[in-house]
């Protein structure tokens, strides 16, 4: 709901492959006051792709264009796309671009992997360069930016990129955005990381039912937080092995007491 997101500007995302249900949800979001929507054409999760949604749609460019034909004239919100290079082959996005170029889209957000790769391997920067050159829309880069030098290397290579989207790196290292704005690396403050962790913990304790769910949710974050504790991975693993909340909290305090990096 919009009031839960204040003051962050939020762009709701739809994961659909039928024009009528897409439009029905878009109407509800427009009624809530949203002015921008994003269509997910990149999700590689089998439970999504088996239903022909997300990255699976990239193999069917005609279906993508048919949905845009049906939806765009009736949409009040501006629409952007979040996508990968293809489901199985980067030729898929290159085949789709001439058609996408004809629509009034706000931007394309490109995660330069294939759906079948999930998150394995490296982002295909050559493939991204081809999309950037062929797209008539603003192109946002997304993928594997965790440290300042990742960003600087990409920004130097792709000056025409219109924006940068950061997922896992922002969860792992909350100082990353500040580093990028300041243009210099910063040491992640252990006290600030601990406060960030405690805020997440308190919010999920309120939202989730039971210690098992809370433990499971918080452990997932440590898959990303581990990047803030270089050289201390063994200690962080004691957190992931904890089977009770009290053990979890003891292990977390031990990690924070030794500091971040
Ligand atoms: C657990 C998880 C859930 C994700 N859920 C979504 C999603 O709902 N919509 C989406 O567009 N991307 C989703 N992504 C993909 C990210 O938006 C992003 O494209 C991907 O993680 C690569 O960027 P990063 O290396 O900066 O994280 C998800 C990624 C992960 C790891």
What class would the helix/strand composition place it in?
Answer: alpha/beta
Q: In whole angstroms, how far apart are the ends? A: 36 Å
- Number of strand elements: 6
Number of domains: 2
Helix fraction bin: 40-55%
Under CATH, the homologous superfamily of the largest domain reads: Aldolase class I
Largest sheet: 6 strands, parallel
Helix count equals: 13
Bound molecules: flavin mononucleotide
Radius of gyration: 20 Å
For the record, the CATH class of the largest domain is: Alpha Beta
Residue runs with pLDDT of under 50 for 5 or more positions: none
Order of neighbouring strands in the sheet with most strands: 1-2-3-4-5-6
CATH topology assignment of the largest domain? TIM Barrel
The H/E string reads HEHEHHEHEHEHEHHHHHH
**CATH architectural label of the largest domain:** Alpha-Beta Barrel
- Mean pLDDT across all amino acids: 94
Shape: globular
| Share of β-strand residues | 5-15%
């Amino acid at each position: 709901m919009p009031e839960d997101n204040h003051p962050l500007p939020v762009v709701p995302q739809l994961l659909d492959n039928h024009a009528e249900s897409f439009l029905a949800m878009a109407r509800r979001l427009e009624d809530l006051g949203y002015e921008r929507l994003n269509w997910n054409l990149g999700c590689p999760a089998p439970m999504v792709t088996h239903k022909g949604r997300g990255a699976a749609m990239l193999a069917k460019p005609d279906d993508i264009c048919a949905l845009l034909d049906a939806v765009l004239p009736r949409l009040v919100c501006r629409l952007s796309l979040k996508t990968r290079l293809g489901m199985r082959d980067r030729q898929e996005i290159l085949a789709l671009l001439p058609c996408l170029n004809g629509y009034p889209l706000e931007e394309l957000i490109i995660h330069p992997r294939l759906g079948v790769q999930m998150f394995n391997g490296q982002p295909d920067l050559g493939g991204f360069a081809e999309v950037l050159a062929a797209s008539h829309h603003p192109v946002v880069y997304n993928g594997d930016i965790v440290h300042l030098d990742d960003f600087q290397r990409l920004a130097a290579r792709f000056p025409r990129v219109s924006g940068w989207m950061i997922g896992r790196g922002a969860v792992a290292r909350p100082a990353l955005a500040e580093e990028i704005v300041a243009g210099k690396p910063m040491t992640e403050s252990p006290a600030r990381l601990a406060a960030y962790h405690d805020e997440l913990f308190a919010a999920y304790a309120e939202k989730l039912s039971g210690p098992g769910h809370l433990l499971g949710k918080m452990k997932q974050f440590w898959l990303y937080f581990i990047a803030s504790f270089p050289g201390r991975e063994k200690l962080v693993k004691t957190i992931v092995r904890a089977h009770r909340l009290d053990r979890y909290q003891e292990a977390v305090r031990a990690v924070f007491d030794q500091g971040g990096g």
